[in-house]
Amino acid sequence: MSTIQTSDKTTEQAPVLPQVPGAVVAKLVMFSIAMLALPLITYFVSTNVFKFGTYWAAGFTVAMVHLVLFAYIVVAVIEDRSTAEDVARHKKSLANAAAAATGEDDDESTTQVVSKSSGGASKRRSNK
Q1: pTM given for the model
Q2: Quick check: 7 pLDDT over 70?
Q3: Cross-strand pairs, 124
Q4: 27 domain residue, yes or no
Q5: Is the per-residue pLDDT at 38 higher than 80?
Q6: Cα Rg, the chain, nearest whole Å
Q7: CA neighbor of 14 nearest in space, from 22, 5, 23
């Protein structure tokens, strides 16, 4: 938290807001504009250009609202999956970097166990 100094020489802790990526804000603004504009455009085009009745125009407008919502959900799910993959990839690279820093190699972290019950013929590999 950052500190704020007031006029009476006391300091207060200012809350730190979470950082929202710019791409997320841009998508939210884009879909907000689409949610407002596309249903209105659909209504007026269906009533004035195609000369549908108001009931049909309202139905097309509702369909457009659902289409925009569905598109937003699809984009959010795809973004969430890519974020989860990025986190997993980052954790793996951190683990590899930590292993390299400590001098561990994949061959050193693998042990071989000889099974005596089968006469030593089978070997089982286990990773630490």
Answers
A1: 0.60
A2: no
A3: 113
A4: yes
A5: yes
A6: 30
A7: 5
Tokens 């791409």 belong to 23
Query: What are the distances in angstroms from CA 19 to CA 16, 22, 23, 25, 51?
Result: 9, 9, 12, 11, 48
Ordered alpha helix ranges (H), the chain = 22-44, 54-102
Q: What are phi and psi of 91, to 5 degrees?
A: -65, -40
Q: Which residues are 19's β-sheet partners?
A: none
Residue 9, in any domain of the structure: no
Maximum distance among all alpha carbons in the chain? 87
CA-based end-to-end distance of the chain: 39
Number of domains forming the structure of the chain: 1
- pLDDT of 8 > 80? The answer is no
Instruction: Determine contact, residues 82/90, Cβ cutoff 8 Å.
Output: no
Instruction: Tell me the residue range of the domain where 48 lies.
Output: 20-96
